[in-house]
Specification:
mainly alpha; about 0% strand
């Protein structure tokens, strides 16, 4: 039931994001807010851009940087697990808690962080399920699934 409710919320939220593209095509003014789109229409989901919208993101980014530094220095199982956990916490925060809107890159950045988890742990069932959920919503709306081109 939680999955269905979450899926419905994501669909409604992403549907709203689609309206911005249609409004611009009609000549209407899109909603104002923090900048979310870089040049050439690509969404800017960089940490600097998102922190300007949600300062809490900085702590998640710093936790990932700390864990990544430790893993780069010593690639043992404990450091790998810590890095996976940091990526997962960041992704979950973006998807479920961050006030960043979908058109500002909320789900795009969540996908990026979940994909980092899969790079380290391809069998991570939670990351696979979360990615599938977000990608299914994009597909159901006929929208392109975001990649990591902005990172």
């Amino acid at each position: 039931m939680k999955y269905i409710a979450t899926l419905a919320m994501l669909a409604v939220t992403l549907l709203g994001a689609c309206n911005t593209k249609n409004e611009a095509a009609d000549g209407a003014q899109p909603q104002t807010g923090a900048p979310a789109v870089a040049t050439e229409g690509k969404r800017d989901v960089s940490t600097a851009t998102l922190v300007a919208i949600d300062p809490e993101i900085k702590s998640f980014d710093e936790a990932v940087a700390t864990a990544k530094s430790a893993y780069d220095k010593q690639s043992n199982d404990a450091n790998k697990t810590a890095l996976i956990d940091a990526y997962m916490r960041f992704a979950d925060y973006m998807q479920y808690e961050s006030p960043v809107s979908p058109r500002q890159g909320k789900y795009h950045r969540a996908l990026i962080e979940y994909r980092h988890v899969l790079e380290l742990d391809p069998a991570n069932e939670k990351a696979v399920a979360e990615i599938k959920q977000i990608e299914d919503i994009y597909r159901s709306m006929g929208r392109e699934i975001p990649g990591e081109e902005s990172m």
